[in-house]
Amino acid sequence: MHRPFGSFLRFKERVPDLEPYERQLLHTPGEAFLQHLERSLKPSRTYKMVVLLSLLALPVGTCSWSIEAIARQFLEFYLQHPIYQADYSALAGYGGNKRDFPLKAVRSHLIRMPLKFLSNGDGDCFVLDTAAKSFSLREQYVPYWQDAAFRRWQLTGSGMYSRAINGRSYRSTGASERALCHKAAGVVQMGRRYDKLVRDEIPKIIRASGGTCTVRVLDDREYRQALYAKLIEETEEYLQEPSAEELGDILEVVYALGALEGLSPQQLEEQRVCTQRQRGGFNDRWYLVETDP
Predict the structure, then answer these.
(1) What is the DSSP string of 272-291?
(2) What pTM does this model have?
(3) The dihedral sign for the CA sequence 84, 88, 92, 94
(4) 136: part of which helix (H) or strand (E)?
(5) Position 176 confidence tier, pLDDT thresholds 50, 70, 90
(6) Where are the alpha helices (DSSP H) in the chain?
(7) Closest CA relative to residue 50, chosen from 181, 198, 210
(8) 260 within 8 A of 227, measured Cβ to Cβ
């Protein structure tokens, strides 16, 4: 949350800098909706923001959507914006024509990750019904979703500027999310700056998709520091959205760090097994509370 204010809207109230429309949202389901989006739209990946953009691209009067329709919009966004495909690793690593990427895989991804983490919990505003293959907005939020002014505020308020209130600079966090918000708000962007370590094939994927990019090779010191930052980034992503994919990303960074120390994946595994034999693993779930002197 946005300590000590609780939300971007409450921050603007405290400044004070509330517009008349924003003041009308206070103490309403609309405010709760915005707070939910602020909590949910984390800056680690574009998944949830693209889901939101996909919903906004569907007919305005609709507040219940088929997962099939969302999946088509979701995939189309990444096809139309190849620079973001690095965030969707399954699509980025697909060997064939990206337009042949199976929609079934997109549906499974949506159910397993972004739709799941946007819905069905305490305080969530969306409902995911896997049996009916639908994703819908709770009834009390429908009037706000259908309000054009509210829809604009979702993107410019909760999706972007609130990050600056969360103890992080606008420039240093959530570049992909910021760019998406700018696009949805009608702001033209000429490029996107990353300043981060990416997987080996990413520059090739961007260029093959018709994009351009600027890259440079890091020296040993820079590479080590970039791997440290990447390890933190991937761990945060796993904590936000636990999955086999995120664990695999962490493991890839661990292997790269091991290579810097002259260790192969096999040698790292041998070290893990050795330590496990000496001190055990974590299977017994022991939680050490205290010891006597």
Answers:
(1) HHHHHHHH--STT-------
(2) 0.58
(3) negative
(4) strand 134-137
(5) very low
(6) 8-14, 20-25, 29-40, 47-57, 67-80, 89-92, 103-112, 114-117, 142-145, 148-153, 175-184, 202-208, 220-240, 244-260, 265-279
(7) 181
(8) yes
